Amino acid sequence: MSSFNEAVILTVGINVLLALGYWIAVSTGKYSFGHTAFMAIGAYTASILTVNFSWPLPVAMVAAGVTAAVAGGLIGWMALRLSLLYLAIITFVFSQLVNLLISQWDYVGGASGMLGMTGTTVPLVVGCVLLAVGYLVLLSRSRLGLAHKAIREDERAAMASGLRITRIAVGAFATSAAVTGVAGALSAHQLMVITPELFGPHQALLIILYCVLGGVEYFWGAAIGAIALSLLPIYFDWLNEWYEIVYGLLFVALMIVRPQGLIGRGGAGGVRLPRLIPRRERESVG
Amino acid sequence: MLAQQLFNGLLLGATFCLVALGFNLVVGAMDRLNFALGETAMLSAVLGALIMTETPVPFLVSFAAATLVGGGVAVAVYYLSFRFVSADFPTASILSSLGCGLVLTAVVTKAFGSHQRTVPDVLSGVRLDLGAFTVSGAQLVILLLATLLTVGLYVFLERTPWGTAIRAVSDDATAAGLLGVPVQRVILLTFALSGVLAGAAGLLTGLAYHSVSPFDGFTTTLTALMIIVVGGLGSVSGGVLAALLIGLIQTLTVAYLSATLRDLIVFVLVGIVLLVRPQGLFGRNAGVLERV
Amino acid sequence: MITTGTAGRVAVGLTVAALALAACGGEGSDSGGGSKTLKIGLVTSSAGPFASNAKTMVAGAEYAVKLLNDAGGVGGVKLELVKVDSQNKPTATATLIPELAAKQKVLAIVGPVDSAGCEVACSAANKLKVPIVSPGAARPGVLQNSRPYGFTIAQPDADNSTPVLAKIIQSRKLKRAAIISDEANATTKAQADLFRKVFGSNGVEIVKSVTFKSGDSSFASQVTSIAAAKPDVLALAAGPDDAGRIAREARSQRQDFTLLGTGSLQSGGAAYVAAGGKDTEGTLAAAQFDPHSETPAAKPLLEAAQTATGQADIPLNFAYAFDAVHMIAKAIEEKGVKAGDTEKGRVAIQEALNAMQNYQGMADATTFKDGIAQRPQLQAVVKDGKFVIDKSAG
């Protein structure tokens, strides 16, 4: 495989992982505007471990995932009971805080960042994506997956059905943070250089775009969104200087034609309850 | 020095105030946020600065042009990102207006380059020495125009039929429609007004900062968002007070602590306000948050 | 149990078709390996704060290639510039460098112009063993991860500016200094540290240190604080745009202290003066590039470039990109690299660049020391709306 194809697969794979991780949080209807915080935590944890303590990358990735999950659990526990706007602002503030702390922390190079990481390989990335997909396939067929959906569609009804919505949502948020952290670790070891700038609002927005472009209803919608948005700039580089304008107009047009994203049903969108599985929904009440 | 710093903060707050008011109008009318408003302000400021440097017309003419551009762009954004975008998907118009913002920034960098554009001084000869602090001519112009627009907006909303219609739609669009208020036209007017305010804010901010950069848009949006959360969504007087408060906090942080902490302190303030007083420091209507 | 409506299926179908098309398009253009020309990659960025600098760099590189090709190419073979656009996104750079290396099979790469971009691009190119020359990256340690294949023509301020700044302090008898810097930006932070060191070792008292955040702030508060400390010099550890606005704010508050900058301020001189207008007059700075050099090698090149571009002052990034292309061309010629011989050619070019001594080009003499160019140490002052080299202070 040429180094170009390899780089394309790495980039697309990491972005798919980011989108899948984000989708886990979104599957409970919780939009975070600071998922880059978990990406940064994962990236820096793994980089410190591989560069300064010479840990092997896969082990460091596990540590990155765990650290990010702990941070995600904490933030989720604080903020998830609040509405969309609250959660958006608190997660955003959290990501800014993480960014600021990293840029002031000389041990990791402050604003100039860390370098010397290497070792992201195609099998590693593909393996992580397959693991995440496997988990999500199981999740969407499990009662937990249904619970996520119930919370997303109507939080009050879900609570009335006896779901412990805070616990489930915090769990989902922590899992989401873990996957994002692992993606951050992989990304750091692909780029070989990380600076706090990499994990700014721009990147946070990209992750949300992957998910929303593909549609938030099914996890593979998010994956397709990530693949499309990662490949567009690589293969449509002839657009060159017009790229950003075309990109922006694409979003404007898409939101008029398919506000629910590429994948997903039309109609009343997230408000209407899905008709797919009425019987099982009953069961979860008891 | 403290007096001078307080004045600096007030001035910063006055420029924040206008764009925050623009946001608030749209939130009131549609319960949706126009994320392209910061870029609207930036585009108006760039064009206004261009008129100021390239033509001999007086400042007020370029200022009027900037407000017109702002109003026009806001109306265009309304048609692209709100009018025909389904309200059932809360993310749709957010993404769409972000897309508009991206296009505006890209168009400006294509047309005028990515460097900061200088905004020439106005009334550079004037200088008021008030003992504890001094006021330059440009600062005087900024304060005057910002106050004029804010008071003008307040009077418009409270005392005219169209202003009453805007408030009616913001309270309950369905009921207002049933009572014969032309809701679509009122919303269009609201967007145009918000654009006018954003355009004015853009050029006045440029005047205060001496320059305008094509990448200012997102920062402007972010600051405005923080202000309307602190002031209470949809509240005009709350927005004004919060803007002045945040302007002061930012200036004093920079003067006595560090610029690195500036945004962080504002963010923490916003977080505390959200947890303790979710309707905003000066807001009355807690219900509005649920709808956004 | 995944089901979608008709619309969903159509959307999936469209996406898949689009992706397949994109992939085919990619394969179709893959045949670039056929070697009639000597290919040099150019990493530019049409977005972000360095878009203008990148544009200047592209102009310089294109001009250099045009001159070389008009003169018959290198060893009778024409050069071809392969441009890619990173949009100022590090993640895009991570695929663009492999694209240049594997798909386009370039012999060497010029760019990116900024330090942050160079860190990512140069590390990636070094890993793939492609020589890469940045015409502008000057952050300390920018090549730490990119040797032996990474090079930069801009010398970091710390080494280049220190002696010049010391000379300015002594000749102007400066005693009380204030420093303004952006602590969250690696480049300006390094500039502030440099100023502190120079002031410390020359007996200048630092009476005030203030910070700002790049791009978005009013400087009224900072300048008010500085004015209260009554310094006789203000050290600008800031990007050129921000520095220009600081100058305007200082003068609009009727402050008349000397303004002092590092070499970076002079290299962004046009932007500084554009942002600061007449308030920048008299600003002193260290410099590493003279747009009106009198040396026998640089003078004709600069004059020809002035006629060709219609610019009175050739910008630094233009000259550095021009020299970068010429150095690569010289390396190709010296080692007799053939167009098809990509891998061996890259090693040869790298060795030739590392061995290059005292290269005389549009930007005077350049010698690489561990990949970093050693540049002339000059003193510059803003006069009549532009930085001019103060030759008497040489």
Number of helices of chain C: 13
Overall geometry of chain A: globular
Radius of gyration computed on alpha carbons of chain A? 19 Å
Oligomer: heterotrimer
Q: How many runs of DSSP E, i.e. beta strands of chain C?
A: 15
Structural class of chain C: alpha/beta
Tell me what portion of residues of chain A adopts beta-strand conformation.
Answer: under 5%
Proportion in helices of chain A? over 70%
pLDDT averaged residue by residue of chain A: 84
N-C termini distance of chain A: 54 Å
Strand/helix succession of chain A = HHHHEHHHHEHHHH
CATH architecture of the largest domain in chain C: 3-Layer(aba) Sandwich
Helix and strand succession of chain C? HEHEHEHEEHEHEHEHEHHEHHHEEEEE
Question: What is the 3D shape of chain C?
Answer: elongated
Q: Please report the number of helical segments of chain A.
A: 12
Summarize the biggest pleated sheet of chain C.
7 strands, mixed
Strand line-up of the largest beta sheet of chain A:
1-2
Structure description:
The complex is a heterotrimer of chains A (286), B (292) and C (394). With 286 residues, chain A is an all-alpha fold. Chain A has one domain (3-209). Helices cover 71% and strands 1% of the residues of chain A. A two-stranded antiparallel sheet of chain A has the order 1-2. Chain B is globular, with a radius of gyration of 19 Å. The longest helix of chain B has 29 residues, at 2-30. By secondary structure, chain B is mainly α. Chain B starts with a helix and ends with a helix. Chain B has helices at 2-30, 37-54, 59-83, 90-112, 137-159, 161-171, 173-178, 183-209, 216-231, 236-256, 259-276, 287-291, and strands at 117-118, 127-129, 134-136, 211-212. Chain C has 394 residues and is an alpha/beta fold. Chain C has two domains: 35-155 and 294-376, Response regulator (Rossmann fold, 3-Layer(aba) Sandwich); 158-287, Rossmann fold. Chain C has 13 helices and 15 strands. In chain C, the strands form three sheets. Chain C has a seven-stranded mixed beta sheet with strand order 7-6-8-9-10-14-15, with helices on both faces. Chain C is elongated, with a radius of gyration of 23 Å. The N and C termini of chain C lie far apart (78 Å). Chains in contact: A-B, A-C, B-C. Chains A and C meet through helix 1, helix 4, helix 8 and helix 10 of A and helix 1, helix 3, helix 4 and helix 6 of C. Chain A: Keywords: Cell membrane, Membrane, Transmembrane, Transmembrane helix. Chain A: It is a multi-pass membrane protein. Chain A: It comes from Actinomadura syzygii.
